[in-house]
């Protein structure tokens, strides 16, 4: 594997400019909320007008089997509603950790790994957003990995290297080896006590890295911290609006209540901070993971999270549903 990648210095400038990311819109979306409210109202109106509820009750009373099935449905419904209430109580109890050292020298050294495959339009903006963060500059390095891209991604990385110099390392694979090996390559050369992964199509918030590091400083049992991810182009069309709602449920609600009991199921690859001492203990087995004699090429973030949760005394946390978005992705 290592014969197919090499660390590069700037050799040629980009042949053309990269495109800018679209502006980030406001998080409040009145159109989406109106559609949700209208949908619920229509369901209630049709249910009352067409007497769906009374017809279902009559149907379930028609035979002994259906009556027994109705009781089972009621039990399952109560379990489902109880689960939602329980998770909501945990969600309400969740409070993002704040604070952190006042002295910049007290912050740990952080390595940010950015794997990229054919992301010529976004890679430079992603790297710029990392260096624009308010994390101490002398405690931060960025490792950009070109996973055998066939477009201008590598030139975007080299353009950024012209700007940031030795603070940015560029690694390039001659062919596509997959995200796992790209992350493994970055982890192998990372100098930081904490490693942050950022997707190449993501733009992180100014305080994102600090917010990720704070929980790791406050509790040695935490092996990873998942960031809050939002949709960058959510107002583009109906599909992106639906995706934004899904992300809000997953991050603002799901990972928030999971964080209360220290067991976030998936720390997202788009933005997560790992304690390198924890990840380093199993990273070789993780990069070679296979299923039914087939090499695993997907689900690397879920697999990493599971490996951390398996380690004795380790847990995973999430970052701030009440905070501004830590990362936004297309």
Structure description:
The chain has a domain at 104-329: Spore Coat Polysaccharide Biosynthesis Protein SpsA, Chain A (Alpha-Beta Complex), CATH 3.90.550. The chain has helices at residues 30-49, 52-60, 64-93, 123-131, 153-164, 179-189, 208-218, 238-260, 276-279, 283-287, 300-310; strands spanning 5-8, 110-116, 140-147, 168-173, 194-198, 202-204, 222-226, 229-231, 271-275, 290-291, 294-295, 315-318, 327-329. Helix 3 packs across helix 8 and helix 4 packs parallel to helix 5. By secondary structure, the protein is an alpha/beta fold. Residues 1-28 and 320-330 have low confidence and may be disordered. The strands form 3 sheets. Strands 1-4-3-2-5-9-7-12 form an 8-stranded mixed sheet, sandwiched between helices. Strands 6-13-8 form a 3-stranded mixed sheet. It has 11 helices and 13 strands.
Please summarize what this structure is.
With 330 residues, the chain is α/β, with parallel strands linked by helices.
The percentage helix is 40-55%
Looking at CATH, the homologous superfamily of the domain at 104-329 is Spore Coat Polysaccharide Biosynthesis Protein SpsA, Chain A
Q: What is the class of the domain at 104-329 in the CATH system?
A: Alpha Beta
| Cα radius of gyration in angstroms | 23 Å
Which percent range describes the beta-strand content? Answer: 15-25%
Distance between the termini: 30 Å
Q: What is the name of the CATH architecture of the domain at 104-329?
A: Alpha-Beta Complex
Q: Strands of the biggest beta sheet: in what spatial order?
A: 1-4-3-2-5-9-7-12
The succession of helices and strands, N to C, reads EHHHEHEHEHEEHEEHEHHEEHEE
Enumerate the spans where pLDDT stays under 50 for 5 or more consecutive residues. Answer: 1-28, 320-330
The CATH topology annotation of the domain at 104-329 reads as Spore Coat Polysaccharide Biosynthesis Protein SpsA, Chain A
From the spread of the alpha carbons, the general shape counts as elongated
Continuous helix count: 11
**Number of beta strands:** 13
Let me know the largest β-sheet.
8 strands, mixed
Structural class: alpha/beta
Oligomer: single chain
Whole-number mean pLDDT = 82
């Amino acid at each position: 594997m290592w014969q197919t990648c090499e660390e590069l210095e700037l050799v040629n400038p980009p042949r053309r400019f990269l495109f800018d990311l679209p502006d980030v819109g406001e998080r409040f979306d009145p159109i989406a909320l109106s559609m949700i409210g209208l949908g619920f109202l229509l369901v209630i109106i049709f249910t009352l007008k067409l007497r769906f509820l009374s017809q279902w009750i009559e149907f379930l009373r028609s035979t002994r089997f259906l009556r027994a099935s109705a009781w089972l449905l009621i039990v399952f419904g109560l379990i489902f509603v109880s689960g939602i209430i329980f998770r909501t109580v945990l969600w309400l109890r969740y409070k993002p950790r704040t604070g952190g050292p006042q002295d910049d020298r007290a912050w740990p050294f952080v390595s940010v790994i950015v794997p990229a495959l054919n992301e010529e339009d976004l890679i430079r903006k992603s790297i710029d957003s990392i260096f624009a963060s308010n994390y101490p500059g002398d405690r931060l390095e960025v490792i950009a990995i070109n996973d055998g891209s066939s477009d201008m991604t590598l030139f975007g990385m080299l353009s950024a290297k012209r700007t940031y110099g030795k603070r940015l390392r560029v690694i390039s694979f001659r062919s596509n080896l997959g995200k796992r090996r790209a992350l493994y390559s970055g982890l192998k050369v990372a100098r930081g006590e904490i490693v942050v992964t950022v997707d190449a199509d993501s733009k992180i918030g100014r305080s994102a890295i600090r917010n990720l590091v704070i929980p790791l400083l406050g509790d040695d049992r935490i092996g990873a911290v998942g960031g809050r991810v939002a949709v960058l182009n959510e107002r583009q069309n109906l599909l992106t609006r639906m995706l934004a709602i899904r992300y809000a449920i997953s991050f603002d609600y799901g990972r928030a209540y999971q964080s209360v009991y220290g067991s976030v199921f998936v720390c997202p690859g788009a933005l997560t901070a790992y304690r390198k001492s924890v990840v380093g203990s199993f990273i070789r087995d993780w990069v070679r993971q296979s299923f039914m004699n087939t090499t695993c090429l997907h689900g690397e973030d879920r697999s990493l999270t599971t490996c951390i949760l398996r380690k004795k005394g380790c847990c995973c946390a999430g970052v701030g549903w009440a905070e501004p978005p830590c990362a936004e992705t297309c």
